[in-house]
Amino acid sequence: MTSNNRHSSSFRDPSGFIFIDQGLVKRSISPLYFEQYNALKSTGFFKKLHNAGLLISHEELLASNDEVIIQPEQISFINYPYEWSFGQYKEAALLTLKIQKFALENGFSLKDASAFNVTFHKGKMVFIDTLSFDFYQENSPWRAYKQFITHFLGPLLLAKYNGLDSLKLMNSFIDGVPIKMLSSMLPFKTKLNPFLYSNIHLLTKFEDKHNEDYKGESKASHLSKKAQLNIIKGLYDFIKKMSLKSTSEWGNYYDKTNYANGAFDQKAEIIDGWIKQLGAKTVIDIGGNDGTFVRKINQELQEALVCDIDYNAVNANHILVKKNKETFMLPFVFDVLNPSANIGFNNKERDSFLKRIKAYAPDVTMALAFIHHMTLSGNIPFEMSAEFFSSFSKHLVIEFPQRTDSWVQRLLNTKGEFKGHFDFYNINNFESCYAKYFILVEKVAIDNSERVMYVYKAL
Amino acid sequence: MIHFLYFDPGLGAMVIQAIVAAVAGVLLFSKNLMYKIKVFLRVSKPEDDVFDDIDVKESDIESKSNSDKQ
What we know:
With 459 residues, chain A is α/β, with parallel strands linked by helices. Chain A folds into three domains: 16-72, no CATH class; 81-241; 253-458, Vaccinia Virus protein VP39 (Rossmann fold). Chain A contains 17 helices and 15 strands. Chain A has helices at 34-42, 45-51, 86-105, 145-162, 169-172, 179-185, 194-210, 225-241, 253-256, 261-278, 292-295, 311-324, 353-360, 371-377, 382-390, 406-413, 427-434; strands spanning 16-21, 24-29, 58-63, 68-72, 108-110, 118-121, 124-127, 133-135, 282-286, 303-308, 329-333, 364-367, 395-401, 438-445, 451-458. Chain A has a seven-stranded mixed beta sheet, sandwiched between helices. In chain A, strands 1-2-4-3 form a four-stranded antiparallel beta sheet, with no helix packed on it. In chain A, strand 6 (118-121) and strand 7 form a beta hairpin. The longest helix of chain A has 20 residues, at 86-105. Chain B is built from two helices and no strands. Chain B is flat. Classes of the chains: A alpha/beta (459), B mainly alpha (70).
């Protein structure tokens, strides 16, 4: 077996690389890493992490003198740090620290602490970079400490003090938020906290002081294992306790929408019936809030991607996933007006939302109480939204709130004198534009409301 | 140990860890002390948290070999 189809995101670590073989993700390990790999395998370290569900499991396919090839459990939909809610981000940070502590106790250490080493899979964060472990060298500091701060603690602090949208910074800084910028953005009171002062502000000063040492003249520093464990435990305790004060604009969304209770249940029944009829196993709910309507589906789903622009709604969904111990639900943050792009080297390191969702090809896309926001707030013409929805799944379940709906009226009123430009927003135009990309399967009006449900099949 | 640097660990970041660890040590010690006092005075609140403890439980590591594979 030759592994020459190297994945475009896999070049940073010379220990090995990811490649795609007949649609399956596999990992080639270079002889440089054989010593580590064999030790991780023979001591049962990998097995322990797999059993605990902390590290993605893998099986060894080939072991020669030149190469070892392993095949990890396949991940259906990779999600990135800039798509996580605050709680998901926290979970990823805690997982990384937990693994580092466990590694130290077993004579290993994480050689990097990138947030991209973690992804949300089957209801929890899981570590996916199998080659991130190295031998622990007695009395050496944690090489990945600064990376942990710029990839995890920093973004979490910015989210807490400067707003949740700060989490999107990881989209621009895929090597972590620059420490100087981080330190300058945090409020003064963080300098009065000894934990934050030492981990952020003093670190910034030290980095500044040492960054001109091109010759590497600074003497090697020492740190006992106990001291390193104190750093890890301190970070863990602090991050675990981090919380937010802000409340969601959608938090009590279902209280203020225009459904009589009966209409709400009727809508859920219609969706459930259609999912059953289509035999759908995978869905994506775009604008799915906290997953309420997906949870009302009685058919057994293999996986449900539920995305929303609102961080708090995604966070609420994440908490429900944890409390209910659900493995089928995958919440993430998504802005339809600006979906995650292809970024990184060659624009190929991190895939765009569209690239990932097209590969995933969910059986059904759900867009409930969404089209009026997309059309009236986002100014996206029906034809363009139809094209978008038709590009990645076979079926579309979409709810259309008519002009007379009070939410639609509210959105139209915000247009002021330009309200006239939105006369096209009506059910006839909607149907004729969507007919260009879809065949209508069924259409049902929800009783006592101004809303109509459609199920479409892509042409 | 893999020596080549495929990312910059930061020299300052390596040096500072002794200080960070000392601060963390003091904080952990004082938190433990406070916790013990609270338990003694019975004012400690039960934690309601969806996040795990830092330690990997023995029960998680053992036996359930294939339970998380599907």
